[in-house]
Each structure stands twice: as C-alpha cells, then as structure tokens.
C-alpha cells in the first residue's frame, strides 16, 4: 500500500491522487500506476476539473485510472491470483479490468465514494466472481 501511495504522489489530479500496485503471491511487485492523462495528452492542456454539464471539459472523459495503468504497466503477462493495492476503491470500469485480468484480491485504503452506484456496481461484480476486497 505504501508503494501505491508513493505512486499516487505523481498524479497531477488536484483533487484525488490515486495510486495502485499489483503484487503476486510472493509479494513481488508486478505493476504500478497512478491516475493520469493518456500518453501524449499534456497535463497542461487537458482539463483536471469536473464539468458535469459538458463531458468534453470533464477530466473523467480523459483520465486513465490508476488501476488501468497498473494493469497496462505490468511486467508479467499473467496476473492470475494476484492482489492489487489501491488508494481508492476501484470504480466499475476498473473492476471489469481487474476481473478480466484474473486478479483475485483488492486491498483498498479509502472507500470515500461508497455511496456511488459505480462503486456499488464494482462490489456487485466482485461479489459475483469471488474477488475479495478489504
Ligand atoms: O477507480 C478509480 C476511480 C477514480 N480514479 C481517479 C480518476 C480521477 O482522477 C480521480 C477521482 O476524481 P474525483 O474528483 O475525486 O471524483 O480518481 C482512479 O484512478 N481509479
Ligand atoms: Zn476506475
């Protein structure tokens, strides 16, 4: 988790810096990520604010989530039965990536958006397939 928090410090998101770290069963680190703009999309040119009435100007249209980056940055092709440490409980889109990658466990530090339908949907999927989270 400390590594996930260290990665989060690299995020340019002024509101929520999120980090993720994937480890195997021997606790070897396989992938690290943080929430950031896609490669080549300048942190200075793309929006870091929320704009719910115009998604074109909303950061959520652009930001790659920490979990996605950790999975894409992995240095091992097989993440089956691995664990992901995350600063923030994964959203539904990250939950899908986590499940499809074969990860079996999510350890999170904050569940500050637990009231949001996307987080409830993530838990619903984890519960359905037996991904543990704590
Ligand atoms: O599963 C997730 C969910 C969100 N994030 C990132 C995306 C954004 O940069 C922030 C959330 O911003 P708020 O202003 O707090 O809504 O967190 C992520 O990396 N992984
Ligand atoms: Zn997400």
TrEMBL record:
What name has this protein been given in UniProt? Probable deoxycytidylate deaminase
- Its Enzyme Commission number(s) read 3.5.4.12
Instruction: Please report the stretch or stretches of sequence annotated as the CMP/dCMP-type deaminase domain.
Output: 1-134
Q: Where does Zn(2+) bind?
A: 65, 91, 94
The cofactor(s) it depends on are:
Zn(2+)
Report the record's Gene Ontology biological process terms: nucleotide biosynthetic process
The protein's job, in short, is: Supplies the nucleotide substrate for thymidylate synthetase.
State the reactions this protein catalyses. Answer: dCMP + H2O + H(+) = dUMP + NH4(+)
Family as reported in the entry's similarity comment: Belongs to the cytidine and deoxycytidylate deaminase family.
Is Transferase set as a keyword in this record? no
* Species for this entry: Ranatra chinensis
What GO MF terms are annotated? dCMP deaminase activity; metal ion binding
The answer to whether keyword Hydrolase applies is: yes
Active site residues per record: 67 (proton donor)
Listed A to Z, the keywords are: Hydrolase, Metal-binding, Nucleotide biosynthesis, Zinc
Query: Cross-referenced Pfam families, in alphabetical order?
Result: dCMP_cyt_deam_1 (PF00383)
Q: Mind telling me which PROSITE patterns this protein's record contains?
A: CYT_DCMP_DEAMINASES_1, CYT_DCMP_DEAMINASES_2
